[in-house]
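This part of the workshop introduces the protein records we will be handling. To make this concrete, we reproduce a full record directly below:
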Amino acid sequence: MDQTHTRALEALQPFVHLANSNSATSPRFIANIVTNATSSPHTYVFAELLETPTIQALGSPDTPAEYHGYLKLLEIFAWGTWQEYQATPNLPKLSSEQTLKLRLLSLLTLSTTTKPLTYSALMTALSLPTTSDLESLVTTAIYASLITARLSPASDPPTVKVTAVAPLRDVQPQSLPKMITLLTEWETRCGDVVSDLEAEIARVKNNAAKRRVKEQEYQTLLEEAVKQRAENAGNSGAGSGRGGKKGVFGRLGAAAAAAGTGRNKREFSADDVDEDDGFWDINTDGMDIDEGAGSSSRAAGSRHSKRILGKKS
């Protein structure tokens, strides 16, 4: 679409040069420039031609009345519509090329202002008698890259679905103040949004810095706690180690003292055995089991429990 606008500007330049040339002195010559510019198949923008002094001179009281309408005609081609042309009296009659061009330009405007773009609305606005004429015009606009659209004659109602419009309509000077106001308001809203975003970014950064400080403090406290616990564990381990040695030596001393009692005979009883050894324990008269030779002399005067060996059934 931007290339279409560039081509339209390039196509207008020869007419702008003619309007600025020294030969553009008579109203008839200037009127012919307007006719040729609006009839050319590649010209769709006319604001630069309208701004030339010679074209503006057509509206002067000194210009013959028969040429006054060419200035208004060029304005309609720049930003007007087919309906405006029909509603304005004393305008030059259009050729077939000019008629097609003005209808195409009007279709661009209708595509951006009328929703939905029905067949009936377009036929009324463009003074087209049949649907085939409308479809032919829309097809011409599509192949000329003026619009991107799709015909839907079977829909209810039949419509033209336009998805893109080339920027080929000039801006009417009277609409500039309104556009400036709208753009200024939009700029103010954008500034407010940017300010809100900057404030939100600053808040997020501040919160992130606070979280980092808290994390560092927590990490420091955690390291100190781990270090302190390790030190406490080391101290308690050393104390328990000394106590453990003392307890071991005490138990060894007690064992040595018990060994000095002269008891060298080993006695067996049912309470001394925790696990099943496969034999019955019977507290009846039976065989004595001594640990070794000479045990009978050391065991004189003492009676011990006897264990009778017998296999379990």
About this structure: The mean pLDDT is 81.
